[in-house]
Amino acid sequence: MEIYAADVAIVGAGGAGLRAAIAVAEADPALRIALISKVYPMRSHTVAAEGGSAAVVQSQDSLDYHFNDTVGGGDWLCEQDVVEYFVAHCPEEMVQLEHWGCPWSRKPDGHVNVRAFGGMKIERTWFAADKTGFHMLHTLFQTSIKYPSIRRFDEHFCIDLVDADGRVQGIVAIEIRSGRFILVKAKAVIIATGGAGRVFRENTNGGIVTGDGMALAYRHGVALRDMEFMQYHPTCMPGTGLLFTEACRGEGGFLLNKDGYRYLQDYGLGPAQDKPRNKYMELGPRDRLSQAFWYEQQKGRTLSGPYGAYVDLDLRHLGKARLLERLPQIYEMAETFMGIDPAKQPIPVRPAVHYTMGGITVDGRCATSLPGLYAVGECASVGIHGANRLGSNSLAELCVFGKLAGTEAASFAKSAPSGDTKSLVARAAASQQRIEELLKNSDGSERIATLRKEMAQSMEEGCGIYRLAGSMQATCDKLMELRQRFRNIKVEDKSRVWNSNWLMAIELGYQLEVAQAIAHSAINRKESRGAHQRLDGYEKRDDVNYLKHSLAYFNADAAPRIEYGAVKITKSQPGIRAYGAAGDAAGH
Amino acid sequence: MSINLKRSNAPVFWLLFGAGGMLSALVGPVLVFITGIGVPLGLLLPENTLSYTHVHALAHSWIGALFLFAVVALFFWHAGHRIYHSLHDLGLHPGAGAKLVCYGVPLLATLIAVYALASMGYS
Amino acid sequence: MNTPAGNGRRPYMRSMQGWWRRNTFYVEYMIHEATALFVAAYAVVLLVGLVRLSQGQAAWNAWLAALRSPGSVVFHVLVLAAISYHAWTWFQIMPRTLPPVMLKGKRLSAAAITRSGLAAAAIVTLMVFFLVRGLWA
Amino acid sequence: MARPEMQQDTEMPDSGKTIVMDVLRYRPEQDDRPVLQSYEVPFSDDMSVLQGLQYIKDYLDGSLSFRWSCRMAICGSCGMMINGRPQLACKTFLRDIYPEHVRVEALAHFPIERDLVIVMDDFIEKLESIKPYIIEKQPRPLAEGEYLQTPAERDLYEQFSSCINCMLCYAACPQYGLNPKFLGPGIIALLHRYNLDSRDAGAEQRKPLVNSEDGVYNCTAVGFCSEVCPKLVDPANAVNVNKMEAAKDYFLRLVRPRGGGK
Question: Annotated catalytic sites of A, by residue?
């Protein structure tokens, strides 16, 4: 097995991984950084983020407002000290990106422009048209090229962490082009592999978003926190689930039911006004908007198309010129994928799974419970999203915590001793053997696609926008069955060079375990909060029993063990989460 | 990968190519018509349009000589450069010989044009 | 088959043989590149004319006479077609070769640049034609 | 025979129709050279070529390899030759080809690693060579806030910053096919993007690449690169504008005093 000796290994080269790599390189140019990604960095799913990234910049805005919007938006399941750190560091990170060349959209005077987003009191979303994630990712990737200490392992698929002596000491990966295994020794490892949205059927996520890093940490005893909170984004393309950014609403788009009625006013978000108003109507938070869709559907007031129920996202009144300036990609997507001119026709949309609020449990400094192991970005739960993430907080999170994870890992690596290569190789060889078994299993009979489809279907049924004990239990049972059947998985392709059949099987293994953590966390939370809404007697938020983080622990072949951890409250006591006129009355 | 940082000499030839391309796009069609079709057939143009007196007078003036020189020389340079690249496009891997021909002929033509015009003197 | 783990890489490079036949865009490109042959031929005709001019009236008249031969006229019709096609494609490509052209704070569209180029060619054509006709008629 | 159920990520209505996809296969561990393999795939009007390939992989032949991720024409993974033209598979629809066969091949002008997967080392190395990052005149402390840049200044380079590195332009460029040392359209577009950025002062450092024998003058203005760009970047413009820059530099250096240039 090939061995590469690094000081810090980073798994995942999306926004968070790249930002972390740059932070390590700037912290100490002598540290050798291995940046491992199963795709080329610019393919990472950060690329698909559209709307923007939050940072307080306007004089009428304040860090407290950003804090309150985030904590209230998260239904008080946030680590408030971490949120304080977060909102305080967003502005400098956005400026840092600007210095690195990110083409932020500008005001006529040359200052960076900001736009409105859902659940925000004051406009604070920095944007680069509607391709913000794309521009941030490419800016970070291209900037990372400046640092000679960053050695990239592009298209290397991480199959395991290597731990020894009670701390993580490296990772094992497959070089996809050759099928060879490589051990990357490292004194600190940062996981930055993104979310797990593809365990659901209809989702906005790219094919690579399979929860790999979450499963890696989980198998090594690190808890997955708050996994029941899966964000449904309210405006997605029916069928494919492709995302129409929240900025469509930030720019003034309307959501209409089949009667052409702005139905959100019936769900505590009104009154309706022509001009977009922060925290009102279409600028409510994502969980509320997705839930309102569900109710409209129950009432038979949605429209119906080949992919089921939908509502109309109406942008016509914004005019073609503004759409092309502010939402060019949305325009292109509507035209190419749906044959719709959004200046002339409303766009059919429905909610789809978008973001994994939970993830690998880390403290406010991005450290996991396994010494030397850090996690950052969507794969991690650093505690800023709570039960519902505010739009445009995730891109800011990549930068603020990417940098923090990088500096923390760098200082850990500098103080940690080198491990014993021989024992690490032995452990890596064991991981290699386990993965190679998949290829050798010649009489497997289960198709990868069949299992994946059953998983995704079951997750949607059990862990959708509204949840019931019975269907959640059915999902838990189904996932257990699928894990059994996975042992009999068939990898048709036995070759080594770019064998994506093999990789998909490994990913499916990751997905099934992460899905289990989601489903079991969900069925155990007997209340409704943020993105976790129940209709079986637990419709209310229950702060007495459930103002707690759920912690899912890997339990080998059995179901995960669910425990609970405290939520850090500093300055915002749980209150009523209200938007629209009710929010104003409640003083939000 | 090793990127060859040796400076390319192409700008000289590319500028001549471009100038010739632009000139031939602007005046090429009308010149071809005048000299090759209109005058020989007496089409739209009086027969004595290209009489020796007229054309010699043109060549005898600075501006006329310059125009004739530019047309002849730049057309050559334009064509030579393009033909050289087309040989490459066709996979004929033009070597030094082809390069010599493609750029040597325009050079020779340029010298001949200068000589011919100079021998007529200027007024 | 049966290569040891990881040694199976054998990147395959495809041939460029006949690449220009692969789509109509390339075919068109090769045709407009080929107009250079006609430009070259016409440049030779003009160069000969210039040399003949410098040799005196008789030489010049012989050149003119040669231009009147049917073969020459047919040849020049072909050259006219080729060089006109060259002009057309030259202005089609022109927007791709210029830095942004700003007009009243707005960027000139590719189509507008092409149209301007063609218009310039038309104007120059008329100017040369009437200059030649007017001066010497 | 009943056809298997559709894949998970996109449910497609069953039209009962099928389309034939001829895919260029190359498995280096067993094939001497690439060979075409045909698959019959259920067809509906809203299916992309990518969805067709996903169907093949999921239900007909798990050994078919190709890159894909975002499905929305922004990650740049799924560039391939579709009926002879470089295109993103996610953005090309079967309905526009039906009932003809869909011929799918790996992106032209690159070595085929396997099936529809190309070796993209060359592109990445070139990307790394052009210093694709802001080279500041002097470092600006974060505390001083952002650089001011007017919308007009941003518009200058914005187009070239939209490159998704899908490499369709390289597959469209015969000059790159004929001479892989050529820096190529997409990379020159990115280089141009930084040179045009009002925050950047690195043009001088990038010049040797532009001016070199592997630089802009390999381009013969075919223009197909810009035709196939899925993001309307116009790399041909970047290349050709830089020819003029390189020419200026070539001659100005002769009149500038030695070492006295800026």
Answer: 233, 249
